[in-house]
Hints:
By secondary structure, this protein is of the alpha/beta class. It has one domain (4-236): 4-Layer Sandwich (Metallo-beta-lactamase, Chain A). The chain is 21% helix and 28% strand. It has helices at 41-45, 64-67, 70-79, 96-103, 167-173, 193-200, 217-224, and strands at residues 4-9, 23-27, 32-37, 56-58, 88-92, 116-120, 125-129, 132-138, 146-152, 155-159, 178-182, 206-209, 234-236. Strands 6-5-4-3-2-1-13 form a seven-stranded mixed sheet. A six-stranded mixed sheet has the order 7-8-9-10-11-12. It is globular. 49% of the residues are buried.
Amino acid sequence: xxxxxxxxxxxxxxxxxxxxxxxxxxxxxxxxxxxxxxxxxxxxxxxxxxxxxxxxxxxxxxxxxxxxxxxxxxxxxxxxxxxxxxxxxxxxxxxxxxxxxxxxxxxxxxxxxxxxxxxxxxxxxxxxxxxxxxxxxxxxxxxxxxxxxxxxxxxxxxxxxxxxxxxxxxxxxxxxxxxxxxxxxxxxxxxxxxxxxxxxxxxxxxxxxxxxxxxxxxxxxxxxxxxxxxxxxxxxxx
Length: 238
């Protein structure tokens, strides 16, 4: 299997019929990483990969439309038919562990640790997951938030997470074979389609996601001159 991206969902700020919130699956022949876990994406993930056999989960920030499915994932791993041999490595921003603990309060002391081996991200965080190298960059979203650069062999995928325009976003996109960029288009901490296009000039291929409710996919495509990712689509990262 080549290096591939599968789109699990792109909706914001809540899931729509046929479209969960933000979530993506990165895969090679030997490695599978769930990138963002928005509501509805756990169900879609199961169409493509067993959740208990993931090599890692990577979360860009703690807003619910990017992280809420960590809660049903916890119950799937510990109390159902999907029980991993060891806690799943979970990479996320500072504060993610505390949020999980508060949601799961009353279960056991430090309950999330039974399901997840949690690692806090920081700017320029590097880690090797199987045959994929993950580099996280701090971006501008009004709370701790990160974009991702994932490399397999000589092939690179970049993902904005949620962010306004910033130097780190340009750095993420530069030289990437596929750049997945949000185009919510509302507020100071998101990208417009034009912002995505500007950052995407450094990449070989731009793909839009997380289209805001004030935009349609046709308008976003026209303004950015780039296609919009759709749930269920897979892309080879060349």
